[in-house]
Amino acid sequence: MIPKSHPRYESLMTREQIVGGVKKGITSINGLIAQGRGEAFDYLIGEKTSVSALQSEKVAAALLLLAKKPVISINGNAAALVPEGLIRLGEAANAPLEVNLFHRTEERVNKIIRHLRSLGAKRICTRSDGLIPGLGHERAKVDIKGIFSADVVLVPLEDGDRCKALVDMGKTVIAIDLNPLSRTAQCANVTIVDNITRAVPNISKFIEELKGLNENELQRLVKGFDNKNNLANAIDEIIEYLSSGV
Ligand code: PTJ
Question: Tens-digit pLDDT profile for the chain (246 aa)?
């Protein structure tokens, strides 16, 4: 039992959630390594949402509101860390969830679907009748009515190749990735350099805040955003934080 007074309480609890996900068979064993990498980057950004991340979270909310067919992709880490948050975000954005795994097994896909349903998820795309072009078979499997035909896809902790393949399909890809240098971060249309545990509720809050805006106003927000520039700001913020003597 980790006491609440522990200075690294939040981070340690997050770690426990991932371990719990592995024990339940929801999260891949490789998810532990991904979590470790994420923790290291989170440490470098001060374990808080940076100004640049808030910017991209707002634009992500605008894109989800503008989308005709948004879909939220769920992997084993996302399902363990923020399942309720992702369900709420799906409802706020009118976006179904779709389980899309890197280390895919049908057993784990089904366990994640059951896990999400047990927490109240209503709209889940469950078929695997489509293939993302240019990827190895298992990683490419998607639902034709879900990710395959989506215009905007939110991909937390995505694999770089698949992120690129989705962009190549003409989709607008919003990635959540604590590593601003990863291939995913570099190739997504909007990259949120923040912990998924903070990013998901933040996007939901922005959806609430922006839903009164008309299409032109939302478009203006999106057009004023430059992902390369925002990633450079994210790196500058890390440098500033580290130079501040922490
Ligand atoms: O469940 P599966 O089979 O789809 O597998 C999922 C993982 C995440 C294991 C798989 O996609 C993978 O191996 O990912 P990578 O290549 O390790 O990349 C994970 C990226 O997510 C890294 O850049 C990490 O810094 C980042 N990351 C890890 N934890 C978090 C995170 N980003 C945001 N929030 C986190 N909590």
Answer: 778 888 788 888 899 999 999 999 999 999 999 999 999 999 999 999 999 999 999 999 999 999 999 999 999 999 999 999 999 999 999 999 999 999 999 999 999 999 999 999 999 999 999 999 999 888 899 999 999 999 999 999 999 999 999 999 999 999 999 999 999 999 999 999 999 999 999 999 999 999 999 999 999 999 999 999 999 999 999 999 999 977
CA of residue 31 to ligand 1 center, whole Å: 6
In a domain, 2, yes or no: no
Position 125 in a domain = yes
What is the total count of domains within the chain? 1
Q: Does 44 reside within a domain?
A: no
* Cβ neighbours of residue 234 closer than 8 Å, sequence gap 6 or more: 45, 50, 52, 53, 180, 191, 193
The reply to whether the predicted model has a pTM over 0.90 is: yes
Token pair of 227 as six digits: 């992902």
- For residue 79, the ligand 1 atom closest to its alpha carbon is 1
Domain extent at residue 179:
51-242
**Residue of 231, 215, 239, 143 whose CA lies nearest to 179:** 231
CATH code assigned at 181: 3.40.50.12640
Q: Atom 31, ligand 1: which residue's CA is nearest?
A: 38
Report the nearest-CA residue for atom 10 of ligand 1: 102
